[in-house]
Amino acid sequence: MEPAMGMGLVALMGAAATVAGCSEDLESDIGSQSNPNSQVQLAAQVGYPHRIFNKAISGEPPSNAMYCAVGAGVAMMLLNSVSTSPLLAIAVGAFVAALLNGVFSTTAYMGRNASQTRFNQYVYLDVLRNHVLGIMGHAYVTTFCIVGLSYVMWNQNLIGHPFPFPVIAMIWGLAVGAIGSSTGDVHYGAEREFQDFKFGAGLNAADSGNITRYAEAGLRSSIDNAWFCSKFGGPVTGIAFGMTVFLDNWRSTAFQGWTAVVAGTIIVILIIIYNRYLELYARKNYGPYPEYSGDVEA
User: Fold this and answer.
1) Do 266 and 249 fall within a single domain?
2) Residue (of 170, 178, 200) closest to 65 by Cα position
3) pTM
4) How many angstroms separate the CA atoms of 27 and 148, rounded?
5) pLDDT score at 39
6) CB neighbours of 213 closer than 8 A, spacing ≥ 6?
7) Residue 18 burial (CB < 10 Å; 0-12/13-18/19+)?
8) Does 95 lie in the same domain as 9?
9) Residue 298: pLDDT above 50?
10) CB within 10 Å: which end of the chain, N or C, has fewer?
11) Is residue 262 part of a domain?
């Protein structure tokens, strides 16, 4: 592969990853599958029933890994059995993954809220209708972009990564879920879910579950959260994931096949060693971390 073509493919994958990261974060915000989802689940039990959608089936990394792997698996089956075009195969695979996401979202919302009726938490059918299609739409965009960039990596005429197509998509699904759960949630849980509390002050244990239930006009739903997060939390998540894909894929263009995998493994080991050295340096220069005894004075 010519260097110019290789860099063009890396840039294309970085762009697709940016879109995927943004849509993944907004999908998790609509469904309350981000880190603050435990507060949404707890709210009704401590006297704060709400109209926020809650589909916390699992953490974002494993769920997105499943959707992306399913999308890539369907696409690979179509490519091998029907000999369809790659673009159509990826689109169909992403659609199947979005349907799977919709099924899981519906059953999660119905099951969670039905089990909390004793706390005056009800199943709102209008919330279900208004949110599921938005969740599926964002999941489709995420899966389409990740399956697409995974196909570019897997195709032997392009980059030719040695891992199977669905495995590459699964790994990137784990990555986008982890970045959405870490980068995007800072601008969702800290700012939006507890908007009534001073930013940066932390959350007292006595306030657990005391989520903000009112929007600018009327009762809040997760659509309001997505509207808020689309201003900053979603884009910054997309940039973080896009940079990860763009800056990491130089290995696939500079090296070939398993050599790129070995290079990546060496880099990860070096980062682990550096992090360990940094921790030891901090302990030595700033004292050991105190053990928690139950009573900590300010």
Assistant:
1) no
2) 170
3) 0.84
4) 19
5) 80
6) 43, 48, 50, 51, 52, 219, 220
7) buried
8) yes
9) no
10) C
11) yes
